[in-house]
Design a protein that fits this description.
Length: 164
């Protein structure tokens, strides 16, 4: 993961905020662009695997909860979805978006300040930028493993969260 060395200072505050939200009872709503739907399935199969020997984490696929996400076109429709999600998750929710920035799915994540966003085509504040290259899939898998190990480290008191 030598490629991550130069990105670690940008990654750490974003990942720490996301893990803090997760530990404070936020439900993570996983969204990807269409090209990375395989990766959403991968994440869901790895994060809450019985082999992890830890409590299951509230990470769900938005597409499973609301399969019409791609049909949203207006701000009013986005607000209606957000209202439904606020009612469904009274402790709060965080969008976890991975993909390109030019689609409805990305727009939903951009609307919420605490979203955990990995953009592949746009470098914007409070998002993790990972440019597409021939190793992108490997880097995505490495990142989710790093995120998963970070959650373990905090849950099992291997690191103190205040130090992050």
């Amino acid at each position: 993961m030598s490629w991550m060395e130069e990105k670690r200072f940008h990654w750490l505050p974003l990942a720490a905020r996301a893990i803090n939200d997760l530990l404070n009872d936020h439900t993570f709503l996983l969204i990807t662009d269409r090209e990375r739907e395989w990766f959403a399935r991968y994440i869901l199969s790895k994060i809450n695997n019985f082999k992890n020997n830890r409590p299951f984490l509230p990470i769900l696929s938005l597409g499973t909860i609301f399969p019409f996400v791609d049909k949203i076109k207006t701000n009013e429709e986005m607000e209606s979805l957000e209202d439904m999600l606020s009612l469904s998750f009274p402790n709060g929710y965080t969008f976890f978006y991975i993909g390109k920035s030019n689609n409805t799915r990305a727009q939903l994540a951009k609307r919420k300040d605490n979203s955990f966003i990995w953009f592949l085509d746009e470098e914007t504040p409070n998002t993790f930028y990972l440019p597409e290259d021939e190793l992108l899939d490997i880097k995505l898998i490495q990142l989710i493993r790093l995120f998963d190990k970070s959650i373990d480290a905090i849950l099992f008191a291997e690191v103190e969260f205040d130090n992050l």
